[in-house]
Amino acid sequence: MENNMELKALKNNFSKIFNVEYAMFNDSETLSIKIPSNETLNAIDYLYNKESYKHLSMMSYIDKPKDNIIELIYILYSYTDHTTIILIIDLNRENPKFVTLKNIFPQAETFEIEFNEMMGIVFEGNNRMGEEFILEGWDGPPPMRKDFDTLEFVNDNYMFRSGRENSINVREHIKNITGEKGALDD
Amino acid sequence: MIEKKKRNIFQIIDDWASARSLWLLMYCTGCGAIELPPTMTSRYDMERFGIAPAGTPRQADILLITGYLSIKTLKRVIRAYEQMQSPKYVIGLGSCTINGGMYWDSYNTIKMLDLYLPVDIWIAGCMPRPESVIGGLNKLSDIIKAGEANGWKKYNENLKWYRANQKKVIKKWDLPEFNY
Ligand code: SF4
C-alpha cells in the first residue's frame, strides 16, 4: 500500500525543522522518528499544535544494556489523519531522566509513575514520582531492567517446594493410593 | 500438627451440617477464575452439592484462591481470610498455589501458598476444569464431615510461624497483627 500522503509531507517538514536521527515507515500509516532528547518537547509541541496529533495512545520503553541506553517511546495518534507517529528518544541508562508530559497529555502522569517504578526513569516536574504503583514495599532494583536477575532474586526471597525424589508414574500412583480413576483414564 | 481429637455428638452434628452448606468466597486474581462461572452456573451447577457463592468474607466458609498471588494480592488475601468467621477453609486451585506453576521464577508471586495460609485442599492443574473443582469441593466436604479440615485451628495455633513467613515476603507490613 502507498504510504500516507500527509505522513510523507510531515516526514519531510519534520526533517527540515528538527535534527532527526532517522525517520522510517513501519507501515503505510505509521511513522517512527528518532530525535535527540533536547528537541523532543519542541517536536511534541509541533505535532500537537501544528499537526493534529492530540492523542497519546501509549508510552513505552526498551532497555538496551549493550548500548547503555533506555529508549523512551511516545506513540501519538491523529484522529483527523488516522495516522500514528512513534517518537523515540535515547536516555542515559545510568541516570535516565526526562521531563514530564502531564501538562500536555494528563494520562502521561500515570505512565510516568509506572516507568519510574519498573525502569527507574525519573520524570522531572511530575510530583508523584516515587509513588507506589504496582509493587508494594519493593526495595530491590527496578524489576524491568534487563540486568535484574529474576531467578537470583526469587532464590533469595522465596521458598520452593522440593520436588519428587522417586520416578514413579504419577497416574499409577494416584490410582494405587486412592483407588480412584483419573479423568484421563478410560 | 493437630491431633485428631474425639468429637462429641454436638461437634459431629455440627460438622455434618456445615459440610452440607458451604459458602464459597472466590478470590479471582488468577486465571483459574475463568473456570468458576461454568462451575457455578447451570452447566456444572455446584449448588447441587450445597455449595454457593458468598458475597463477603464474613459470610463465607471457604476461601478459594484461584491461582498465582502476587505480594500485593497476598496481603489482601490474608486480610480477607482473617475476617472470615471460623470454621473456615482454604482451597488452593491450580499449580501456581502449589509450587508457583509457570510463575515459578517471577519476582513478584509467592510459590507455596501453605506457607502463608493453612490450605485444606489442593486442586492441581493449570487450570483445573470445573469437574476437578467440584471434585475438590466434594473432597473438602468429606473431610469436614470427618472432622479433619482443621486448617483454621492450625492457623490460630501457629500464628507466629505464619506471621513470620508472611512478613518475610510482605516487606511493607501494614496489616493489623490480629484482626479476628
Ligand atoms: S495454575 Fe495455571 S491457570 Fe492457574 S493461575 Fe497459575 S498459570 Fe493460571
Throw out a few tags for this protein.
heterodimer; A: 186 residues; alpha/beta; Beta Polymerase, domain 2; five-stranded mixed sheet; two-stranded parallel ribbon; 28% helix; 25% strand; elongated; B: 180 residues; Rossmann fold; five-stranded parallel sheet; 7 helices; 12% strand; globular; binds iron/sulfur cluster
Question: Overview of this structure, please?
Answer:
The complex is a heterodimer of chains A (about 190) and B (about 180). With about 190 residues, chain A is α/β, with parallel strands linked by helices. Chain A has a single domain, classed as 2-Layer Sandwich (Beta Polymerase, domain 2), CATH 3.30.460. Helices cover about 30% and strands about 25% of the residues of chain A. In chain A, the strands form 2 sheets. Chain A has a 5-stranded mixed sheet with strand order 1-2-5-4-3, covered by helices on one side. Chain A is elongated, with a radius of gyration of 24 Å. Chain B has about 180 residues and is α/β, with parallel strands linked by helices. Helix content of chain B is about 40%, strand content about 10%. Chain B is built from 7 helices and 5 strands; from the N terminus they run H-E-H-E-E-H-E-H-E-H-H-H. A 5-stranded parallel sheet of chain B has the order 2-1-3-4-5. At the A-B interface, helix 4 of A face helix 3 of B. Iron/sulfur cluster (SF4) binds next to helix 4 of chain B.
Please report the number of helical segments of chain A. Answer: 5
How many beta-strand elements of chain A? 7
Radius of gyration of chain B, CA atoms, in whole angstroms: 16 Å
Largest interface: A-B, 19 and 24 residues
Average pLDDT number of chain A: 87
- Tell how many strands the DSSP assignment of chain B holds: 5
Average residue-wise pLDDT of chain B: 89
Taking the sheet with the most strands of chain B, its summary is: 5 strands, parallel
- Structural class call of chain B reads alpha/beta
